[in-house]
Design goal:
Rossmann fold; 8-stranded mixed sheet; 5-stranded parallel sheet
Length: 510
């Protein structure tokens, strides 16, 4: 805990480190103060959806809240902060000295309370004190009581735009949700979509071109395309089939996505994403003492990702108490390592006990932990699990802003659907993943039963083979239901493409 000592001018005295040392670090992180420009190495060309979401919020003058970017380690949150700085300097002619980036993970910056660092910045760098400022703060969880601090900053500095990141859930760490009500808004940063993976490699490695289409086709409406449009789409995307396998194996995080060596990519994922979270962050931020139990649980979830899991069974198999299990599951969720998908009834509102599925947030992370290399792409069962997880995670990321209800549906006689998406802004969507060769959909399967009971619902069957692309009709007791079969690589690519086109159009690029 820091001890604040005040002098007669009500300024902090810098007890542990000199102002000169702090300023040296700040200038290294903020080269635009002197250069009036941001080095290209700091800013990647690919602007992801969270970047545009942040811009929308910042441009809403009525919104007086901080913006929190939660997401796994190494997912690209820092890049988004630098892109925000770059955008305001280049495109909005914002005074470069009124933008500050700092990371609370830096050991020198940890030696001074954040309030003193910002005070020093205002005293030594800012030229006009009353002007609007943009504060880009990385890894907020390193601050004591981060939610309390953020509340005070929002209340005390109405002319400061605060954008902060967190690899660990700051609200879970603090357990002080009430103090922050109305003080901030979340913009999650997910792992890469398949489209983003392809586009990133094109931009950064001069890799094969990411196919672009003039129309922003919705992935859920691909069944409505004409036969000529379907052929054009299929022919354009067919070269990406092998790239899709690489994406499933190692492609969810920007750094690993750029590597052509899967073994190296997986080693970096284990060291930078998984090990640091499990062995360092959990002890530091969540005060987890049973790190061995935590590691065992995470490996267990990797082994059974996407399977129905009864918590009583997990507790018994791992020999840990239910109370400990619940606590560790909450920690893994807060660290953005796992995602919970609950079982729901036909209304989509009633949660079914004992029908929970846990997914590791990205298949590449699961593969790294289990040391699954290219040989796993030849295992139909393993490959199917990867595609299902990628589908669930990409749909969850795509639909976040409109707060849908996501679940997996269960009907009579063990009928089920892998993923259903419902909400006030959504036509109900049922998605079933059958990633296997020569699969033939039958009328008695779960997705058909769900669609027969749910009015105006859209049915999508995610498949493996390119020739599966098309529409199937079934007569369910006099009701005609329609299911669009879409190869996985096309479905996931076009979902990302649609999002990209919307971002570009909303930013005046079309």
């Amino acid at each position: 805990m820091y001890h604040h000592v005040y002098d007669s001018n009500i300024h902090y005295k810098y007890m542990l480190i000199s102002k000169i040392e702090i300023l040296r670090v700040l200038k290294a992180y903020n080269p635009w103060w002197d250069e009036k420009d941001i080095p290209p190495a700091f800013v990647k060309r690919l602007r992801r959806t969270p970047f545009y979401e942040v811009l929308k919020l910042l441009n809403n003058k009525a919104l007086k809240r901080a913006i929190v970017l939660p997401g796994p380690r190494r997912v690209g949150k820092t890049t988004i902060l630098y892109q925000i700085a770059d955008y305001f300097i280049r495109e909005e002619s914002f005074d470069a000295k009124n933008i500050i980036y700092l990371t609370m993970e830096h050991p020198i910056l940890k030696l001074m309370p954040i309030d003193q660092i910002l005070e020093l910045y205002e005293e030594e760098v800012v030229t006009e004190k009353g002007r609007e400022k943009i504060v880009l703060l990385d890894e907020l969880q390193y601050i004591d009581e981060p939610t309390v601090w953020l509340k005070l900053m929002v209340d005390g500095h109405p002319n400061w735009k605060m954008i902060v990141t967190g690899s660990a859930s700051i609200t879970f760490k603090n357990k002080d949700l009430e103090s922050g009500v109305g003080r901030w808004v979340h913009v999650p940063v997910p792992t890469l979509s398949f489209f983003e993976y392809v586009l990133l490699r094109e931009y950064e490695k001069n890799d094969k071109k990411a196919p672009m289409f003039a129309k922003a086709w919705k992935a859920t409406s691909l069944g409505d395309l004409s036969s000529e449009e379907k052929k054009f789409l299929t022919d354009s995307l067919k070269p990406l089939q092998e790239e899709f396998n690489n994406f499933l194996l190692v492609g969810g995080f920007p750094e690993s996505a750029m590597l052509d060596d899967p073994a190296l990519a997986q080693r970096l994922l284990r060291e930078d994403v998984v090990d640091k979270v499990l062995k360092r962050d959990m002890a530091a931020f969540y005060k987890v003492r049973k790190l061995q139990e935590l590691e065992k649980l995470f490996v267990y979830l990797c082994l059974h990702s996407g399977s129905m899991m009864n918590e009583q069974t997990i507790s018994g198999e791992l020999k840990i108490t239910r109370q400990t299990l619940d606590s560790l599951l909450n920690c893994l969720e807060g660290a953005h390592l796992i995602r919970k998908i609950v079982g729901v009834d036909i209304t989509g509102k009633k949660v079914l006990k004992g029908k929970t599925k846990w997914y590791v947030v990205d298949s590449s992370m699961r593969n790294a932990v289990l040391l699954k290399g290219k040989d796993s792409l030849q295992d139909p069962t393993d490959l199917g699990l990867m595609v299902e997880a990628a589908t669930v995670n990409q749909v969850a990321s795509f639909t976040y802003g409109s707060t849908p209800r996501l679940g997996h549906w269960h009907g009579k006689k063990e009928k089920e659907v892998d993923l259903v998406v419902e909400g006030s802004k959504y036509t109900p969507i049922a998605i079933e993943v059958k990633y296997r060769g020569n699969y033939e959909l039958k009328h008695n399967e779960g997705i058909c039963e769900y669609l027969s009971q749910k009015n105006k619902a859209v049915g999508i069957l995610v498949t493996k083979n390119t020739q599966d692309f098309g529409v199937k009709l079934f007569n369910m007791n006099g009701k005609i239901i329609t299911i669009t079969q879409i190869p996985a690589y096309i479905f996931l690519y076009m979902m990302g493409h649609y999002e990209f086109k919307l971002n570009q159009a909303g930013h005046g690029k079309e």
